[in-house]
Amino acid sequence: MIEMKNVYKKYPNGIVAANGIDVEIKQGEFVYVVGPSGAGKSTFIKMMYREERPTSGDIFINGTNLSTLKNSKVPYLRRQIGVVFQDFKLLPRLNVYENVAFALEVIEETPKVIRNRVMEVLELVGLKHKARMFPTELSGGEQQRVSIARSIVNTPKLVIADEPTGNLDPDTSWEIMNIFEEINARGTTIIMATHNREIVNTIRHRVIVVEGGLITRDEDKGEYGYEN
Amino acid sequence: MKTRTANRHFRDSLKSISRNGWMTFASVSAVTVTLLLVGVFVMIMMNLNKIADDLERDVEIKVIVELTADEASITALEEEIKNTPGVAEVQYSPKEDELNKLVMDFGEDLRLFEQQNPLHNVFYAKAANPQETEQVAKKIDRLDNTFEVKYGEGKIERLFSFLNTSRNVGLVLILALLFTAMFLISNTIRITIVARRRDIEIMKLVGATNWFIRIPFILEGMWLGILGAIIPITLVTTLYYNIHKVVAPKLAQGNLFELLDFSPFIYQVNALILLMGVLIGVWGSFMSVRKFLRV
Ligand SMILES: Nc1ncnc2c1ncn2[C@@H]1O[C@H](COP(=O)(O)OP(=O)(O)OP(=O)(O)O)[C@@H](O)[C@H]1O
Ligand SMILES: [Mg+2]
Fold it and tell me: How does it sit in the membrane (chain A) (predicted)?
């Protein structure tokens, strides 16, 4: 499903955030991406839906080569991938409901399907009662849950989450993990960057450790395994 | 694009208008001021143009026939004037008619001359293009049996050069005004879009195509244009209605020139104002959003 070959990324300011990454992730896998702050986790993730482009190397998503993908086709790539952004990226002028609905509107779903699906996922993340509120009226954790709701609302085959529990209290974090577990059980690939040792060590999945733009460890049912 | 997506864009653009409160107000104000200026200006220009046309149309060439010319040569001369290139129409006025005109203007005393009419027979000709009156007059002057050809030398040259300059100045002013308007408005709209640059970036990251993002902005520009046209249309219409009511009867007495009729002129001006508002709004949005779509 996802394949990276010798991916190298140097930002315009000279920082090398990926220094030769080779990795393969299969359909249906659940992968934790861990590593110290500034290690290159977000960069690694951003290259998958082409928010960032590698300086060299190739990335394949479902057989599509992202290096040669035309700009006009990028929206169609992004629709197959649900992304929970580290900084949420909610539309400030739209309320909770509209933010989540947006992901369905771009794929021109019927109003009925949109209404049902949006209420369904808002219920799932526990924000049904705040559907009419605007992002600025929400706490960080609530905004994060809206971002999660939006990422899964169109049932993508791949969900990429950048620290989806970063702003959540332990109880809500576990609830969110349950949601991810559930959609993973239905065959969705999940890639999750996290600093949450407890979660990684409790719900065991494949762990990819990124340090200094390199994958330094990659093991199935691994442990968080380093001090930060 | 599906109908429901079109509906969504439609609703979205309206929502954006109301949620962007003062930005909408700023843009609409800019459009309003500009369209008002353009509207008043077009109104003045079109009327000046009409007056110029009226004045031009009154310019005649008076061809005074030799006293010695007999009936046959007068008919021949008429034919020749008609065939002179650039002549639109010719009218014959025999010396009896000329005398009658004088009697009308200066009184019955002149009837004395009816026995021994000292006047010439006259042709009145008009040039197809009034601006070429002078050349046409000179050509007629070269024909046989013409005693004298008059066309208001000097006076009409000055009239024409005045009319031409004012027409050109008006055109330049309108163009300059339009250009400023476009600049002003696309700038205001750009500010509202810069404020939403992050929105555009997010929409793209969530899988929206460029057109999906662009269309609501373009529709929004259209609304701004339409909203901005309301006050100018109302004011220009009221203004012209009142001016026309006061000025037109006075001009009608002079019989020299008239204002353009209220209808259909005012509808044309209003349509122009509306069209320009929409074009400016749409164009401004389109140009401004273009820059931010490269995410
Ligand atoms: N847009 C950018 N321009 C320049 N440098 C960047 C940019 N984004 C990230 N970097 C740099 O690249 C490196 C990796 O950043 P990245 O965001 O991938 O780290 P991370 O592992 O996600 O960290 P964290 O755990 O804090 O989220 C950092 O040194 C950062 O300063
Ligand atoms: Mg990060």
Answer: Peripheral membrane protein
